[in-house]
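User: Good morning. I'm curious how iron/sulfur cluster would be positioned relative to this chain. Could you predict the structure with it bound?
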Amino acid sequence: MRSDNPVATAVERYNSDPLNLVQIVHDAQAALGWLSRETQGEIAERLKIPVNRVESVVTFYSFFYDKPRGAYRLLISDNITDRMQGNQALLERLLVHFSINRGEVSADGLVSVDLTSCTGMCDQGPAMLVNNVAVPRLSEARIDAIANLIEARAPLDHWPAEFFRVEDNVRRQGPLLQAPMTPGRAIDAAIAIGREGLLNEMKRSNLRGRGGAGFTTGLKWEAARNAPGAERYIVCNADEGEPGAFKDRVLLSSHASRVFEGMSIAAYAVGATRGFLYLRGEYEYLKSRLDAELERMRLVRRLGPAIRGCAGFDFDVEIHVGAGAYVCGEETALLESLAGKPGRPRVRPPYPVTHGYLGRPTVVNNVETLCQATEVAIHGGAAFAGQGTKNSTGSKLLSVSGDCEQPGVYEYSFGVPIAQVLEDAGAARDAAAVQIGGPSGVLMTPDQFTRRIAFEDVPTSGSFMIFSGQRDMFEVARNFVHFFAHESCGFCTPCRVGTSLQREMVEKIAEGRGTRYEINELMRVRGLMRRMSHCGLGQMAGNAISDCWSKFRPTFERRLLATEFAPAMDLDAALAPARVVMGRDDAGAHLKEEV
Ligand code: SF4
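Assistant: Good morning! Here's the predicted structure, ligand included:
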């Protein structure tokens, strides 16, 4: 029998296993609203772990609260596309309505309002999360209706269903999206060709990871299969946190059986028995649907022991929900989080294929990669390799948003020119820039629109944000700089300090107090972060500002106090009395100007 004590219930639900600490904290907070010191202490006591381990988890993740929050927690998505769609005015409207400041709780404890990083709704923003449930397409009217519902203390399931309707917005279909896969087809195809045959087809397909790094999936599976160890794991990285990316949301919403079959065939090839789908906290509203799909698959023996009657093919999947930490999209940070710890990236090597979850061989694949793997199992590696380009086979999903007529998900064979995507999205005439691959990606201008989406030209995990000539590109870069400062996990100094310095200097420029000195410093800090940061987040955190400076210089220059560096005082002149005292006026007694 379950206890009335929510902490005891949460701990029991996860078998009192500290590896599930992040999930236990999620459940405890869902029941209690926030995580007091007493609650954290009780979790630690029941799990028999030091309380500072619980504290380190609670303070690491943005969606865990060690101070009271409102009964209704409103988090307005703050990607640049949300800003372009007017999220700031809507935030202000809410704050005025409830007479609170951003981040505060109303005096009666009813509501708190804050901003959060991109919620993956850029095709239907501005958006927000209400108690972790997505509400897209915000307008003044919708904000007012929500405020009234909150004042009436209406439970979320009494709110109009329309408020929570999230569209797929699939605008262009290719092999993956054009027809739903017949359930079981990929698993049956894999069993028919056998484990070795499947691995061979995967290698023949040259399918590369769709998360951005582009490692060859067949080789990754083979390395995990060959790594020493009795237990292996498959992890689906559904932590789609790149601002401007939302195509995994569509795959998880409408193609969940394909995602799970992709995990199952990976398990078959590798010899894994256990899998995890790590769902970003912003997509928690999808969890019940995904759990239902897992249950359906178990009923028809597409999960569980002896899948489809195949002896030795035993595999099942658990869903773990993240808690608002972008860095957990990095695979080793994700594995730390899965093991109930703060999501800090590990030192690599060793790599997850040999030392992954609990130090055991683990395949970590992106949602889209696993879906593409089902295509390989069904149609064979050669057919898959026949699409796209030599080094980038198959199709790629793009999340297209920003200044275009048709924001949504587009599927293309690799090699599609940027100009084609703009044409299809209704942005060909006005596009002045496209940010590809999110804030850590590249900013492309019209002279580069003939470039192609492919690993060998413009690689991307899928985020494709379009900006018209009317946009102030400094504000775009400013939003990205704030994003990195917020999302730096703080583990290494170059990134922790560098992203904060970037933010301070960009704010100084925004306030009209900057000079050429700030620009030089921004470039210097970018170089330091690139060379010295521990993981990709810090290494790429200066890209946006440097790209924007090199391609949209006037947008910075019109904000600068002076475009050339002008020191506040003449230090050499100030040292003249000292030279008189010393009786020297030779060159060595003067300060040299640094070039
Ligand atoms: Fe954390 Fe940034 Fe260092 Fe990565 S680079 S480990 S995000 S502080």
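Residues 395-471 form a domain with the Ubiquitin-like (UB roll) fold (CATH 3.10.20.600). The mean pLDDT is 95.
Let me know if you'd like a different ligand tried.
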